[in-house]
Amino acid sequence: MSDAASRFELLRHGDFLLWTDGHGITMTMVTAAAAAGFVPGCALRLGSGSAGASSRCVVGMRSRRGRAAGNGVVVSRRVGGQNRVGHRLGAEASPGAAAKSVREDEDTFFEAVAIVLKEMFDEDKIARVLAAWHLAQKGTVYEKNWDPSGQNGEEFWQRCGSFIEGLDARPFHDPNGGNFPWVHELEQNWETIRDELRRSYSDNSHVVKRGVNVWVPAVKDVALEYGPDWRTLVLQDRVWEPTNSKLFSKTTKIVKDAKVPSVEVFFARQGPQTGIKPHTDNCNFIMTAHLALDAPPNQSWIKVGGEQRFWENGKALVFDTSFTHSTFNESSTDTRYVLLIRFWHPQLMPVERKALQFIFDAVENPALVERELKVWSAKQTRRTASDLFK
């Protein structure tokens, strides 16, 4: 071990080594291969104050094609961009100053998150989340074709780069079937929601001036599928947007009072003669509901997994966007408006939701991982000291 390395305490976890100054002030992870010479530039920094080269963690998937998985197939696909559509699991690190590969940096981050998850939660209770995280680390995508004709038509594919085992999978779910008790509350109050939205039309300049990101287009990574005429007004994006929630206080209260297990809530606008191209949101544990507010009757529709349904004002559609889906508004004059809600799959346990939420937060802010690793390191140090005196 080099002189530089000797100033640090070494902790081992699997194939990775954690370096700390012994006071929990800095935390860096390096691969075992790099540990012998401890080159600071080879380390992934998970926040400020560590010794390694800085790396930026963003959402993405590495590519790998080929192996079978259950009744589906794991294939390759690179999915870049924000973690806003589909809530994909994954981390893609930008290269640091040293000649360490992106692959090693990614693996370091994945391993760090896995350590923290096991420390924060009962490992047995989050086994499915850990399995999904490891699949994301390998860059795998689960695919299954549900074409009843057996012809493997493109519109019948279910594709999940972020995949939790054992969740009920079907294109459309019965909104009144018992798994979604909150749907009834939304439908009962749909006119209140519609009227609040309509009032914003008449005072659009006020809403645009006071609101945050009012009627913005799709994020860059999905703009091609969603098209230039698809617009959203966000109320919740994992956390409630305070300004827009106040501007649409009645809608926000209805959703909260109904106890919707929401991750995102926003109004979605689709202009006449426009649509969304076939695509998948790449995730099976976040589902989607649309409450139709202003929909041209028998003219605006959504197709999921080969099944087409029309929006009806005051009625909700619940569906799984890991299936290939598309939309179109056939009206030549009228715009379609829906309240769009993305929510946790009802078969996820509460602890699994919390673990997945931590992953989303960690991908956006790796400093959270560093903070939790310091806690873990301190515990490991105390355990080591205790063992020495046994």
TrEMBL record:
All copies of domain Aspartyl/asparaginy/proline hydroxylase, residue ranges: 187-346
GO CC annotation terms, alphabetical: membrane
One Pfam family it belongs to: Asp_Arg_Hydrox
UniProt entry tagged with the keyword Oxidoreductase: yes
Gene Ontology molecular function: any one: dioxygenase activity
Key words of the record: Dioxygenase, Oxidoreductase
Domain of life: Eukaryota
InterPro entries the UniProt entry points to: Asp/Arg/Pro-Hydrxlase, Asp/Asn_beta-hydroxylase, IPNS-like_sf
PANTHER family reported in the protein's UniProt record: ASPARTATE BETA-HYDROXYLASE DOMAIN CONTAINING 2, ASPARTATE BETA-HYDROXYLASE DOMAIN-CONTAINING PROTEIN 2
Homology family: Belongs to the aspartyl/asparaginyl beta-hydroxylase family.
Name of the protein this chain belongs to: Aspartyl/asparaginyl beta-hydroxylase
